[in-house]
């Protein structure tokens, strides 16, 4: 962007926060929308694995939701964790914007909304898009 070869970029944190200090860069919108728990990514397992260990799937799901609650409750937790796996200045990670994580299990509606968004932007063909039933573990 600084070389003039592109006009607009998207970036994840902490790059967006780092770029915001540059007077030549104008931030249009943050990556973090503020919508708590909007489905942008998910943990997945092979069907055989989920069927062989349903208790493991339930325990893992509960642990993720509990971790999300802890992250949402205390804003100091996310930057502390980020320093353990992101090679960036800890001061930058302290200033970065972190999303709010979902504290409820993913619903059929969440999956359908995410599927519709992927289809709307042409990221996959409708014929290749799995249904919500195919993507959600049965409980």
Can you characterise this structure?
The protein has 139 residues and is mainly α. The protein folds into 2 domains: 92 residues, no CATH class; 34 residues, no CATH class. It is built from 7 helices and no strands. It is flat, with a radius of gyration of 18 Å. The termini are far apart.
Describe this protein with a few key phrases.
139 residues; mainly alpha; 7 helices; flat
Q: Domains counted in the coordinates: how many?
A: 2
Query: Residue-averaged pLDDT, rounded?
Result: 85
Query: Topology as H/E string?
Result: HHHHHHH
SS summary, helix count: 7
**First and last CA, distance:** 47 Å
β-strand percent reads: under 5%
Molecular shape = flat
Approximately how much helix is present in the residues? Answer: 40-55%
Beta strand count: 0
> Sheet with the most strands?
none
Structural class: mainly alpha
Walk me through the topology:
Elements: H1 15-19, H2 47-52, H3 54-73, H4 77-82, H5 90-95, H6 108-120, H7 132-135
Short description:
With 139 residues, the chain is mainly alpha-helical. 43% of the residues lie in helices and 0% in strands. It is flat.
């Amino acid at each position: 962007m600084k070389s003039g070869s592109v006009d607009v970029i998207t970036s994840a944190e902490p790059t967006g926060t780092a770029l915001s200090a540059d007077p030549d860069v104008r931030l249009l919108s943050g990556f973090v929308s503020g919508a708590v728990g909007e489905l942008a990514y998910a943990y997945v397992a092979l069907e055989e694995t989920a069927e062989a260990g349903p208790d493991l799937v339930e325990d893992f799901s509960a642990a993720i939701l509990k971790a999300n609650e802890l992250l949402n409750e205390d804003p100091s937790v996310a930057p502390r964790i980020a320093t353990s796996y992101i090679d960036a200045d800890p001061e930058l990670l302290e200033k970065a914007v972190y999303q709010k994580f979902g504290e409820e299990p993913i619903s059929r509606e969440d999956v359908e909304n995410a599927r519709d968004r992927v289809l709307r932007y042409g990221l996959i063909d409708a014929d290749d898009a799995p249904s919500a039933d195919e993507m959600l573990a049965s409980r």
